[in-house]
Design brief:
Protein name: DUF3243 domain-containing protein
InterPro entries: DUF3243 (IPR021637), Uncharacterised_YmfJ (IPR024702), YmfJ/YflH_sf (IPR038292)
Structural class: mainly alpha
Strand content: under 5%
Oligomer: single chain
Number of domains: 1
Pfam family, one: DUF3243
Radius of gyration: 12 Å
Organism: Paenibacillus oryzae
Largest sheet: none
């Protein structure tokens, strides 16, 4: 995972690929969003930001409540899907 997280563009493409795979497996948008929230929580706890984009996301994640974090996760999904 460290290679994937070293570059924000690489991370977005990786995330987009995983979202596409989840959709092909028949997962709902809500389920994918919940998984994105769990990934965000894991990254927040276990991974130090490696670039400016990740640092901003971490700052937003850290100040947000659970609803905010779920919104961030959904927005990251949208960003990834547009890349």
């Amino acid at each position: 995972m460290s290679t994937v997280l070293s570059n924000f563009e690489t991370w977005k493409h990786f995330l987009a690929d995983r979202i596409e795979q989840a959709k092909k497996m028949g997962m709902s948008e809500d389920t994918i969003s919940k998984l994105a929230f769990e990934v965000g929580s894991f990254l927040d706890e276990k991974v130090d930001p490696r670039n400016d984009e990740e640092r901003v996301l971490k700052q937003l994640w850290d100040v947000g409540d659970e609803a905010d974090k779920k919104t961030i996760a959904r927005l990251m999904m949208k960003v990834a899907e547009q890349s």
